[in-house]
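Quick bug: Cellulose synthase-like protein D3 output formatted oddly.
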Amino acid sequence: MASESPSTISNGSPRVHHVNQASHDLDSDIGGVEFATYTVHIPSTPDNNPMSVSMEYSTSQRVEDQFVSSSLFTGGYNCVTQAQLKEKVIESQTSHHPQMTGAKGSFCAVPGCDAKVVTDERGLDIVPCECDYKICMDCFRDAVRNGDHMCPGCKEPYRDLDVTEYAATNRKQYQQQMSKTERRMSLMKSTKVMGRQSSEFDHNKWLFETKGSYGYGNAIWPKVDVDGSQDGIGGDPTVFHDKQWRPLTRKLNISAAILSPYRLLIFVRMVVLGLFLQWRIRNPNEDAVWLWVMSVVCEIWFAISWLLDQLPKLCPINRITNLDVLKEKFETPSLRNPTGKSDLPGIDIFVSTADPEKEPPLVTANTILSILAADYPVEKLACYVSDDGGALLTFEAMAEAASFANLWVPFCRKHDIEPRNPESYFTQKRDPYKNKVRQDFVRDRRRVKREYDEYKVRINGLPDSIRRRSDAYNARDEMKAMKLGRAIGNDEAVDNLKIPKATWMADGTHWPGTWTFPAPEHSRGDHASIMQVMLKPPSDEPLKGTTVDSNSMDLSEVDIRLPMLVYVSREKRPGYDHNKKAGAMNALVRASAVMSNGPFILNLDCDHYIYNSQALREGMCFMMDRGGDRISYVQFPQRFEGIDPSDRYANHNTVFFDVNMRALDGLQGPVYVGTGCLFRRTALYGFDPPRVKDRNGCCCGGRNKKSKSSSVVSASDIDSQTIQLGDVDDDNEEMNAIIPKRFGNSSFLVDSIQVAEFQGRPLADHPSLKNGRPPGALTFPRELLDASTVAEAISVISCWYEDKTEWGQRIGWIYGSVTEDVVTGYRMHNRGWRSVYCVTKRDAFRGTAPINLTDRLHQVLRWATGSVEIFFSRNNALFASSKMKFLQRIAYLNVGMYPFTSFFLIVYCFLPALSLISGQFIVQSLNITFLVYLLGITVTLILLAVLEIKWSGIELEEWWRNEQFWLIGGTSAHLAAVLQGLLKVIAGIEISFTLTSKSGGDDIDDEFVDLYIFKWTSLMIPPITIMMTNLIGIAIAVCRTVYSVIPQWSKLLGGVFFSFWVLAHLYPFAKGLMGRRGKTPTVVFVWSGLMAITISLLWVAISPPSGTNQIGGSFQFP
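Here's what came back:
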């Protein structure tokens, strides 16, 4: 068993402390000391070369970076923060990437020292002597300071006391394989590397640099022309001034030939509905007043519900992006950015998972791989995995994914692979060799496929591996305890011995998270904070691969760097409300602000992977365009895989994503749907947008009035005020005293706010662009992680951090609802932010959806319950501010009200059966007026559906499936949601939901096996009862009419028509009850029969049908 050597950082105070960068300084107690840190970046010039202490600074920083990436950090409430150095995190002996976690380098060869040798960015040992004697940094310092500068190996004096010189020597063999263009380093790059390696400035490099092409000012003009040619003389500088400014995005309005009739039909249908309801109220059915009253009340509610749903659809739009312009602006040489280095802002990607049993680790790991392979600057990406279950299985699966990324990501970059989820790529049903022109593609693909199969076997075998390992270690500990007890002669203690069954890591240490057999401080609701940098931040410059042998891929032209990957499991303790997914997201927001502080955040569910590798660039086009600083988030549509071809239960939800969301995009923006959303960090922080305005208009646009708000707010009413971005200023002492109370007492976090706000601004490359940043401001390298930074990140994810702050109230993801996503987006729109809907030509993300009927109903139940909670909370759109547009308010009001339609829908679905059983109808007679109104309402509905299909691009079958499941969900899950919501509001009964199980994708025999599995739930009772009651009503009415002396055919025709309308909508539900073999379970017959017979007999007893002995009746048709 490997020894455990934790380094401790005291957490006596939640304030931020500065910890020395060297790993051996982590034992000092710095709990009661506060520091103000100032960082000044001074460029290296002949007159200013501050690298005289390069050995003390650069090498110690490299040691610190290596220590952080090889340590597992834990901490939390009433416990110290520990950094445990890990020799390994997985058992498999696969090739590791230089950035991957785990202690790297060879062991020091000095007798009595077991430290590791420092490695470079390629994972190669850095040795200070040509004899290749392995020596760690501490021993090297001792030899230099205390000895005679002699190498302990060859006994020769060191030629140079700066170990970084030898790192360059070790990389010489790789530099020889670089392309000719890369070997011709520009003057700026040469001085940059030289400044890091030498303590004295080498003037010879300036004297003999004859091929440098100088531009204007102090910039080095690029040797590549703007058009891409390499003639060595540089491009024409006037080209940059003469370029016409081009937008990154364009708004495409719907054709007036479609939109104008669509709006006209909405108005016509409103008029027809109004006239129809007026006629219905003035013409009651005197023979069945009860039936008339119920039908009229339901029809009035349906009209209101239709208006709430239809009015926000008045202004649908489409948008397109221009990725070429994005590349030209941010990644092309310019006056401010002569090297053409990426000037795009950073993105922190959040992936959330909670239970590896319901969310297979293989699915989560493949999602991580798609993120790591995304087409975005590597140094600007950081991925954070939130494991809310604290499971070792998820931890080791992430480590396996990081290991496999060493092969998968370069393969994707080399051959432009799409999609970059390996499971989806290798199982897609198309020719994988189409449009692949490289001769080595077939060989590379076969090798990667073989490695992926082995990778799947390792991940699927992790549960058994962890169990066997833990059993072995637990048995060993138990044997040791028994031997110790017998040695001291305490047989009674041996008999009563109970050793906790711990879960063990690969290096032979206890897992600090949740154990397989829960124990105190090791259960799902009680464990410490855990953080592991799986892949450390990449180097600033591209790192090309090599050609080793014929069995390996040729990566000599491929950047093999990987984005930073961090495993995070926030602290959970009894007595603290963890706030489910919203709490986990807020913990990631704080941790990422401390570690990488990307100005933009993309959140994905563990089963939603990046299907379009350029999706991040598409979203960034909106954020970086003119006016993009007022966009809070870019929402992408959800697309799903593994859905049955007929989409029986409307899992694709295309009507919502392609109709409703496009329409909202023409207002203030789409709602946030929980995944596939690119956020602006400062919007999540609760700030108002720049140039915030009040909305006094009533439609899509309207007049705007600037709000009069002072930047200085009194302390008495500060809690009721929002914060302007300009308020976070060093000169605003009053606001600086309030902000820590809102964000917590981490000065690291507070200081990062201004940085994130500045980096998230669009480029100031147009005179009309306001609130921009200068070009080239984000081309500087990212600072390396140190132990104090990770320790602060551990602090901000502790269970106590949110106490007496506004996290979850006004900042971050909002608490108090199971649909925290909708509430979070609503709060942003309520502060005046806009959002954008980004529909890409190739789907941006893809995920899975439950195709089982029971799972689908429970999913809809969760959504509807969240809507009921919103309706009964202060997030009701009726209380929205004047900063929200009127139609946007209508849309949010509909979100909170749509579940209440279930009461009226269930009653209306029973009306045809009750009419047939009682012999009455909702109107006195089927006269011509009623039929005309019915025809007008039906025709306008059909025409509106046709036009929606035209401008949205959906299919008629998808529209009809949505209508069917609207009734299925409305008569089952929505009713239960309303009842649960009322119980919570009235009786205070909390609502809990279980995670929706995700498919692991391992069942290759039948992809849709879950579709046919029947799982009983009480949600099925109402729709089953409706079906059986209508069938019984049809049977009774037909028999009565046929055997009646005076048959009432008109009433029978009306009742049967409406009954079939109900049954047609419930057909997918009935088909789901049949299962695979078409056999309905007995429990369905029992419940449906009892309910239907009870309702029928009860109604006949209360209101018996009229006598059938009248003479002279005949069929009447108007």
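Actually, after a second look the formatting is fine. Residues 1-57, 164-242, 702-720, 1108-1118 have pLDDT under 50 and may be disordered. Closing.
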